[in-house]
Design goal:
It is a single chain. The chain is built from eight helices and no strands. The chain is mainly α and 190 residues long. Helices cover 65% and strands 0% of the residues. The protein has a single domain (19-186), classed as Ferritin. The chain is elongated, with a radius of gyration of 18 Å.
Amino acid sequence: MWIYEKKLQIPVNIKCKDVRMAKYLIAQYGGPDGELSAALRYLNQRYTMPTGKAKGLLTDIGTEEMAHLEIIATMVYQLVKDASIKELEAAGLGGHYADHDRALFYVDANGNPWTATYIQAKGDPIADLYEDMAAEQKARATYDWLINLADDQSIKEPLRFLREREIVHFQRFGEALMDVQEHLDRKKYY
């Protein structure tokens, strides 16, 4: 079903380690409003969408969210790969090092592991699409705050790209909502 292209949507080329920023960025890897949660939410919800347009959109955006997960993973990896154990400890990542070394793991910025409670699938297409629009706005807000925390332009540039994609996804979910409501209105669903 998927074809993996070994190329990120936006190049990530961070030259300087920044363990502090890596700890913050991990929020978009394994946090409640992160890319993993979004990808799984959308790829799961698509099955109960009543229109081909909505199903296709959830598949497309869910797939793109997996690509965004790769961008975040690449950024975090580049930010910590040369960090010493002392630097990891100083940034509050000593426990992570003890469990995972420098490997990425699905946690939020506070080290809480990812959980399926971060995602939702109600089975009601209207409720699910509103959930998706809210998820995109929460992710956009998180990217705003991450950009504010970053000093390095090589970190800010991919974050701005990801922020823009959240806005586009929000708009696309709004279009899907109108399509689904029109479809359900024709069937006298309400």
